[in-house]
Amino acid sequence: MSSLNDIRPTKGYLLDLKRRIVFVEKGYDLLKLKRDNLAKELKNTIDALQGKRQYLKKELNAMYIQLSTANRILGPIQVRGYALTIQNQLRIETLPTSIMGVTYPQIRILSNPSLDDSTDVLMKPIIENIHSVIHQILQLAELEAKIERIAEEFGRTNRKVNVLRDIIIPNYHERIHAITEKLDSEVLEELVRLKVSRTILERKRQ
């Protein structure tokens, strides 16, 4: 039986504990649901990141072959010179996005570099592919940031779930059980006293 040194073994306190445990267990269920949803979202995002990395690797290999071909045909000096024909700059902004209370940066592209009309027809698809690869890298960065934030929140939520399950909720149930036993014992003692008193009175009347 739990020690009653630090709790009040009264009916009012028992009712208060029972109301609290209902609230705590509802909170536990909600946190557990959040944890499970975070775990699912984390897995899906990791899968998306792995798929994006594989796709980017293929794109980089294809772009390397294209650049090697252009170097052989046009020469490295002319290929580097076409980089000067790219106008404007890549402009991006990051916006806060939230999922299940987890905020992570979402990258939005404001403007893309544009090509000069004099760009060689051999270089145009290569430069366009470079732009595509840059977009893929930005998406990778976004996914990695999302994974990091979700993983942190998952860890915090999982710790809360464990504390509620292993410490707080069992402690409430232990206190409720101890107080219930104490009150039942007091009721039983009172019944015994009443029975003894009745027996004594009946004997006196005789």
Walk me through what this model shows.
The protein has 206 residues and is mainly alpha-helical. It has a single domain, classed as Helix Hairpins (Orthogonal Bundle). 74% of the residues lie in helices and 9% in strands. The protein contains 3 helices and 2 strands, in the order ααββα. The protein has a two-stranded antiparallel sheet with strand order 1-2. β1 (91-99) and β2 form a beta hairpin. The chain is rod-shaped. The relative contact order is 0.16. The mean pLDDT is 85.
Radius of gyration: 35 Å
Number of strands: 2
Instruction: Flag low-confidence runs.
Output: none
Total number of distinct structural domains: 1
Contiguous helical run count: 3
Helix content: over 70%
Give the termini separation. Answer: 43 Å
**What does the average pLDDT come to?**
85
What is the top-level CATH class? Answer: Mainly Alpha
Please tell me what the overall shape is.
Answer: rod-shaped
- Which strand order does the major sheet show? 1-2
Element pattern in H and E: HHEEH
Structural class per helix/strand content? mainly alpha
What's the architecture in CATH terms?
Answer: Orthogonal Bundle
Q: Report the sheet with the most strands, covering strand number, pairing sense and barrel closure.
A: 2 strands, antiparallel
* Beta-strand residue fraction: 5-15%
CATH topology: Helix Hairpins
